Amino acid sequence: MWRKSVRAPYYKHLIRNMIFTILGVSFIPVFLVSWTIYYAFANAYHEKINAHLVTLVENHKRQIDAFLNARLADILFLSENFTFAQLNDSEFLQAKLLSLKNNYAGVFVDLGVVDADGNQVAYAGPFKLSRVRYADAPWYQIVMKNQVVISDVFLGLRGFPHFIVAVKRFDGDRPWILRATIDFIAFNNLVENIRIGKTGFAAIVNKKGELQTKPRFQFNPAEGCFGRFIDCDQPITREIYSEERPGEGGDMTIYVSALLKNKEWLLVYQQKVSDALADQRFAQRLSLIIFAVGGAGILAMALLLSLRMVNRIATADQEKEMMNKQVIESGKLASLGELATGVAHEINNPVAIMVEEAGWIEDILTEKEFGGNPHMDELHRALKQINTQGKRCKEITTKLLSFARGSGSTIGMVQLNEIIEEVMVLSAQRAKYANIELHSALSNLPEIKASETEMHQVLLNLVNNAIYAMEKSGGAIEFKTFQRDEKVVVEVADTGPGIPEAILGRIFDPFFTTKPVGQGTGLGLSICYGIIRKMDGDIQVKSTVGKGTTFTIMIPVRSGLV
Amino acid sequence: MTIANIMLVDDEVPFVEAMTRRLTKRDLEIHAAYSGEEALQKLSKTNTIEVVILDIKMPGMDGIEALKQIKTRFPLVEVIMLTGHATVETGIEGMKQGAFDYLMKPCDINDLVAKVEQAARKKRGHEEKIIQARLKEITSRRT
Description:
Radius of gyration of chain B: 16 Å
CATH superfamily of the domain at 409-556 in chain A: Histidine kinase-like ATPase, C-terminal domain
Strand content of chain B: 15-25%
Oligomer: heterodimer
Helix content of chain A: 40-55%
Number of strands of chain B: 5
CATH superfamily of chain B: Response regulator
Shape of chain B: globular
């Protein structure tokens, strides 16, 4: 409804302000709190994931180192506890291999004894390598120098990836070597087991940048520092090192590396950040959804509340505006009253003079010399007419005054039927223009003590309201009078649009009006109510929307008026 | 012989003149005054006036004030309020201040004459009673 008001832009502005205020008050703290919590959570989670990965890699490093050392220890044990001669016996060696295989299923592939010249003198294993010469093999050279070796992974003569664990012993002055081949698959499993999420995997590289295990996914050791982890610009010297940088596909990737096997190997674990932080991302998405839903709720509430509030304000403003107009209207009425009093006085005096002068003429005409005048009758009639019209003027001014003041009405014996007839005559013209028929069914009524002016006012008001309601549609107004018990009853029924039930209870309230602002004061029916109640009477209304309205006035035959 | 000796007080000169003519024709002796002050002045000079017909709204001293003065200074003189100010309140105010009756302009000449007669009769009745009382007093003193 406020949309129609001239102040619509003001209310739109008000709504906008209210919405922004509500949203600001609601969202700013939520934003700050959410952001702080999210920031702290993301940091903590990131750190936790990093720490977890570091621990994981550390554990595996230990596990792999332990595995390699254990294999070395196994060979050392064999070499220390048995002589070259014993081990040189292929059957004996076979028995030891069997025992090792029994103890560590699938780890040891074969055992071999190599003499000082690099020739394998004894061999136990699935391949036919009994007289192979290893003098040129890198591992042989290392073991001859360092006493022990754990070689890098290589294909060798057999064509399968494997690595060698070997120890150098002396038989007298002559060195000999006990070597064992470690199954690549068994070793690879140690690294292969490190699988986290969808993209997390591990691999081992040697100093040359050669892969020592078979990574789950594509892994390019040449990338970053891993290929030559000792020789590169920023050599990896820390036992455990972690960093985050864009990986091969350009996605941010976490790299955790650990030096193995006396810094000869590097265990590298890598996982995409998005994968590592998947849980955080999920929590983040969930929070965003909750935030969006909550935000939508707040927005809807802000809209609804603002609209409601502004509607109320608009209604209140409208009522205030109406009240102001009514106050002005009342002020106008009051000044009209003062004006009417003055006018009444000013009119009555000249009228009195006219009447008296006419009376004087009449007095003169009674003189003898005018006795035979043929126009005497006509003169008397004319003078009488002046007198009558003078009295009429007086009546008019009296009524004007009583209307303007609402008092000053004289109380006398009133025949309501006569007043109804007068009201019908007064309203006939207006009713005719509005295509409204006026009917009456008046039964004999006793006279009641009342103010004629006030009764006029009440009935005229009801008829005027009925005509106003039917002005467009036309219809009929019926006046009915009868006596019931000790009361005189007047019914004024119209066939208009009726009064909605919602406002039926308010129609007698002062300042209640359905007419456009400026057209009605909302005082008519409340004055009627006041007048009838003053006479100990009652005024009731029955209305059916679409069928019509009936006002019933009941006045005690002996009213309380004095 | 006049019916009564009256004074017409109104600032409307034509009204006073017309009324004077009409009332004179009806055997009333009329004195005219055009303000409250003039009325009081004339009353103090002439003691024959029995009834005053007094307009309420007048410039200077208004009818109600003039009525109060008349009733104080000439208590026996009866006053009929005649006003164009068509409200009951002023009439009632006049009655409270001791006016004999009130009429509204324009009024029927015969009604007015009737009221004047009644007022004059009342005045004479009062005078009669006073004379009687005085006579009684004198006679009682003699005896």
